[in-house]
Amino acid sequence: MKIGTLAEATGTPVETIRFYEREGLLPPPARADNNYRMYLPAHVERLAFIRQCRNLDMALDEIRALITLRESPAQDCGEINALLDEHIGHVAHRIRELRALEKDLKALRARCAAPHPLAECGILNGLDKAAAAPTPTKRRHVHGSH
Question: What is the pTM of this model?
């Protein structure tokens, strides 16, 4: 099948498929005489695996490691368990960061309970005050959360 058919069959944008190929997550397909990529059912299966891992918010390196381990079925799954345990730890850390972010946003929102002229807006004033503070904020933007 051609790349457009693979994209449609898996719900994956063509550029994402090409990206996964460049990253080595998806094996390069054979080329037809006209130089079109020709994908096989194995590509559909691999792409579905990659997408499931991405749905679990796994990083490309984690997926790459899982693919490598998946190709050695006689090996025990200890490394996979360790990889998933580490990923669970990252998720738990991010949840804590998101809860702290939610608390900060709610506190900021509470500064402006009713509409005021913008010059008196508690939210804008709070943001301005925090931006002018001499010490940097403790938390950075939580990536991958939206």
Answer: 0.76
